[in-house]
Amino acid sequence: MYTVSFQEFDFKQPSLPCFLLFLVLLPLSSAAQSYSNITLGSSLVAQDDEYSAWASSPSSGDFAFGFQKVGNDGFLLAIWFDKMPEKTIVWSANRNHLVQRGSKAELTTDGRLVLWDQRGRQIWAAVSANPGASHATMLDTGNLVLASQDSSILWQSFDNPTDTVLPTQAMNLDTQIIARYTETNYSNGRFKFILQRDGNLLLYTTDFPFTDKVAAYWSTQDSIGSGFQVIFNQSGYIYLAARNGTLLDTVFPALSSSPAQDFYLRATVDYDGVLRQYAYPKTSVATSGGSGAKAWTTLSFQPSNICQRIGGGYGGGACGYNSYCMLSEDKQRPICQCIPGYSFIDKNDIRKGCRPNFGFCDEASQKTDLFEFETMESADWFDSSYEDFEGVTEDWCRQACLSDCFCAVATFKDGECKKRRIPLSNGIVDPDVGGKALVKVRKGNANDESRSTLIRVGSVLLGGSTFLNLLLFLLTLMMFSRLKRKEASVAIHPQKLTPLPAIYLPSFTYSELEKATNGFEEQLGSGAFGTVYKGDLPSEPRKSVAVKKLHKTERNGEQEFQAEVTAIGRTNHKNLVQLLGFCNEGQNRLLVHEYMRNGSLAKFLFQNPRPSWYERIKIVFGTAEGLCYLHEECSSCTIHCDIKPENILLDDSFTARISDFGLAKLLKKDETRTTTAIRGTKGYVAPEWFRNMAITVKVDVYSFGILLLEAICCRKNLEQDAEEEDRMILAEWAYDCYVGETLHLLVEKDEEAMRDMKMVKKFVMIAIWCIQEDPSLRPTMKKVTQMMEGAAAVPVPPNPNSVEFAL
To answer: What region holds the Protein kinase domain (predicted)?
Structure first.
């Protein structure tokens, strides 16, 4: 725990007398609060310039409940501090679904609190085991309560926190608070604070855009498995208590000198993943500057250095892939930056990470003289290393990375060289890291400005006399020559290890792979272009591999094989199967891939019992991200041409991994379409294949749309033995269900999906857009991922065979 000291406050760790004080100041009952009841039939309407809220009490009114506008995006139904200009929001009902002007919050005559959008559709309702409240109350603690006639609490916002907890509020077992997405986007973000059912209190990264916990990066130290409640005391003390009320661990200390009643207090899991406790003076506070301005001040925060705590495990770390995290000068906030030669994917959401401004393994990048290194002291990217070498020099490390197109960064420390490839994860710059990072960048990325300066200076000077022009021209040439020599200089000293040759994938002999597969004994699958066998390489005895043996072919065999190796070798993404090596010996052509223990999505999807709804959604989202990478983010745009459940494999954690690039078609950077013979699998092939039309990435979008429908319904697109004839073709039946508002028929045997019909409808609408007959109407895969994660709205789709509307 980290505590900040200020001149006007004294926030020390409490002693035993202070502990006794907070026992006296346990949370007060709501009965002691000043409030006004909200009667049945009362309502609020979202208006642009009108105050639409229920205040907490006639006398103090510290809090209000109502509509607060969020930029130009819409309205939150929220609770906020009402006596400060910032109107700081502490709770919201519809954080993931903003509503528009004219939406209404109503305490209905039958005792339900409901949020309706401007079209009269229910967006949210306060869930209660005993519906039928007699009134609602906005308490002066910031707690919104629905109560019965005898004042028994039926529902309260304190039991359903969003990203903030307040004094007198308690977190019970299995309660969690989830950070907002960004500073101005209140939807679910990437971090959460949870008191688990097993009694442990932790901060986690989440499997964004889902809220499942992934990696813990902070926890209480002395109370493993024994916590029962997190109490936010009126004195500002936040602590973990046992079932019998005994204090187990301190999260944040109390205000020991300044009276707590003089401040508004809150604790929030901020969008950067740090849990912070804040104070806001109720009256002006004299500061050393004498301004007396009031603002939220950070009292304490956990963890003390999030850059160090999120330094391993799954995901992109505190700042996203291909970036690094470092603390601000006041040591309170993580700062995220792209590594040299990279740019933010989205400047409005820097935690999406960064992308390189150049290619690594394209044809041009294989020329080592096109690259140089930027040095970063005390920098590292954990979990991105794929080769380690000991007993080498820094110069050897530079050359080893330079000659390997997969190597994006080499880290060097104490004679150890680690080669790292993109996406680089869990980056940090911190004095405790030590060593240095050698970041490989294209020449000219960092020096273009200096070159252009020389050119401008030379041009001006050459405008003088002939003799002076000649003299200055020679000087300019000398300067350019020295600059070029400096850029090209990479000191290389002979060592016991030889730098890797300019070949980027291991090459195996046919006999090696025949032995590794025990004579191609265990078949994993077969397709039109080859058969896949399970094998074990002697170099990696604990890691099984999948060996794809391509069918022997004379016509264009060499060219097609080289295209496939090139296509897969250039890719590097968490949702793609990685190519580990190849064999090209005579007519024998084989590819060595990662082995996916959980098989294909087809096996997983069409089995009994069916996989859970949320597992299916996670898989299709991963598939969408992998396709988005192939289409828009790797060095050459790649059309897969055969997206189907059989070609989506599942790793040990059931993450989707796109496989089988045997049909892949590469496009040059200046191309958007190609012409080729029909490829793909019946039921997933886009209509343009049969119409002699140019083929674009939209054929993959079509196939993904079919796959998405299959994942929703857990059935194949073409089902000859369907119970009813109108259900034989899933795509047509799904559209009929959407138009007829009978989407429940698609998931009628799936209880999880039936409870999440809003998501079912959204995903069916996305699928309908993807399978539009006109390719121009289909969204890009980037647009698909944005719609799936909620970053973009999903418009009403037209009939897939219609061309009347555009997305």
So the answer is: 518-794
CATH, domain 601-789, list 3.20.20.220, 1.10.510.10, 2.40.160.40, 1.10.3720.10: 1.10.510.10
**What pLDDT does 396 receive?**
93
Whether the domain at 1-27+167-304 and the domain at 33-164 fall into the same CATH topology? yes
Distances (CA, A) of 792 to 73, 167, 273, 795: 11, 36, 24, 9
Pick the CATH number of 510-594 from 3.90.700.10, 3.40.50.300, 3.30.200.20, 1.10.10.10: 3.30.200.20
Cα 528 to Cα 530: distance, rounded to the nearest angstrom: 6
- Residues making up the chain, counted from first to last: 807
549 is in an annotated binding site: yes
Q: Please give the single-letter amino acid code of residue 454.
A: L
Structure tokens at 98: 């903003």
CATH class assigned to 1-27+167-304: mainly beta
Query: Known catalytic residues?
Result: 642
Q: Tens of pLDDT along 611-640?
A: 889 889 989 999 999 999 888 877 667 888
Indicate the pairing of strand 188-195 with strand 523-526: unpaired
For 488, counting Cβ atoms within 10 Å of its Cβ (0-12 exposed, 13-18 middle, 19+ buried), the class is: exposed
Local confidence band at 215 (pLDDT 50, 70, 90 cut-offs): confident
Which candidate, 408, 367, 366, 360, places its Cα nearest to that of 384? 408
User: Which residues pair with residue 718 across a beta bridge?
Assistant: 729
Name, in order, each residue with C-beta under 8 angstroms of 682's C-beta and a sequence gap of 6 or more: 718
Separation of alpha carbons 593 and 579, rounded Å? 5
Q: How far apart are CA 623 and CA 601, in angstroms?
A: 10
| Sign (positive or negative) of CA dihedral 77, 80, 84, 86 | negative
What DSSP assignment string belongs to 27-65? PPPGGGS---EEETT-EEE--SSS--EEES-SS---EEE
pTM over 0.70: no
Contacts of 255 (CB under 8 A, 6+ apart): 9, 10, 11, 235, 236, 263, 279, 299
Longest dimension (CA), the chain: 102
Give residue-wise pLDDT tens across range 315-357.
Answer: 778 898 999 999 988 888 999 999 999 999 988 889 889 999 8
- For the chain, the domains span 1-27+167-304, 33-164, 312-503, 510-594, 601-789
> Mapping DSSP to helix (H, G, I), strand (E, B) and coil, where does residue 116 land?
strand
Give every strand in the sheet of 238-241, ordered side by side.
170-172, 229-232, 238-241, 247-252
Judged by DSSP in three states, 457 sits in helix
User: 33-164: what CATH class?
Assistant: mainly beta
Q: Which of 109-118, 224-233, 551-560, 638-647 has the highest mean pLDDT?
A: 109-118
